[in-house]
Amino acid sequence: MNKWLQDFNLWLRIYRLSIPLAKMLKNVYMVERRWDWMKLLWIGVDDTDSVNGGCTTYWAVTLMEELRERWHVGLPRLIRLNPTIPYKTRGNGAVAIPVWGDIDIEELADLCRKHLDNNCWLDDRNTNPGLVIVEEIHEKLRIFAKKALRDVMTYEEAMELIEDLDIQHYALRNGRGVVGALAAVGLDVRDPTYELLTYRHPSRFGTQREVDRNSVFKADEIAYPLVWDTVDRENDEVVFTPGSPDPVLFGIRGKSVFAIIRAFLIIRSEEIDKFQLFITNQSTDMHLIPEKEVDVLRDYRSYRLKGVVIEKPYTHIGGHVFFYLETRFGKVKCAAYEPTKQFRNVIRALHPGDEIVVYGSMKKRTVNLEKIEIIKLAKIVDYKNPVCWVCGKSMESAGKNQGFRCKRCKTSAESKIEVEIPRELSPGLYEVPPRARRHISMPLIRVKGKNIHPFR
Length: 456
Ligand SMILES: [Zn+2]
Description:
By secondary structure, this protein is an alpha+beta fold. The chain is built from 9 helices and 26 strands. A hairpin with a 2-residue loop joins strand 16 and strand 17. The chain is elongated and about 100 Å long.
């Protein structure tokens, strides 16, 4: 009976959600077929939220509701930019919305401006909203977007491009949001993923989120690995709900839209006010600069660096683990901070002489590790007293520089023997657990053809 009721509830949800889900799938289909012939306009937006509330994706979803009354709106893009930027709010995500139809650009701009004026969280001095309307994605915009992801771009550089390409724009405060707004429109994402974001009822903003824990674990069991980072099994935590007072209830990330929907139908929670699927550059590692493209290492950039471990890693107060790596740029400090939990055990097991590749962002001249690849482990040897070949016991020292002997059997040997100590690690890729993963970092289950040690 219970099972029957559960099934009934599931079918009821499928019935109730069938129309919005079908519309969502139509949009995915249109993006994947790349309807290039269609005249599209792109609205890019960034930095409408603050640490006290709001979310740029929510701002975009509410704008899309208004846009749909007049024109066609496609699948929006959620683009994560340079994760180390000091003045970002949380995930540093910007949004781009495709619009088409019989568009009067002045009318569209007016609507967007009004929405920006009325719906930003300007309580925080670090909120500097920016909005652009792009009619054609120029090669210069693509280059700018890639730089915004890997480098630190300024407002002045963004304005230069805006004037050069004659892009409609609107900004509040110091206007720094235009950098992300441009990047969200221009970034070329080769291997995109999806995220289904659900939003809370406005009356609940700021209160404790109610999501049924068991249902989330069950959804993960069914949809993993096509869906990832909903739970952290090793640490027994639900990780897909934000901890901040923003409107997001939870976000389901994955490669397959069907797997995401499947997980979505299983999860039970408080009332969902709205939901929206985004196409994203999350879980792509697009922020990492390969070392062949680097001349000098700088703070606020993310790298993939090859090197040799110089000394045994050490644990600092607070549980942070550090070590030094000899690279072609010199000695580089690397860190696995406390929130990376079990990943620190991998780091602690490293040994001088190990050849590795580190993945992570540089801040205060230290690489904050997201992943490591062990290329070659150093051989660790220990010296032990030789073993008697008659009785099989360890020989004893016969005195200084006198060699070793077995008193009982009268056997002797000249020197200690070399014993190789087995290593706890094996070559391959290791990653931080889901709880510590950045939006933009690629989980190892997405890495093909390598010896991987994924964290679930
Ligand atoms: Zn013996």
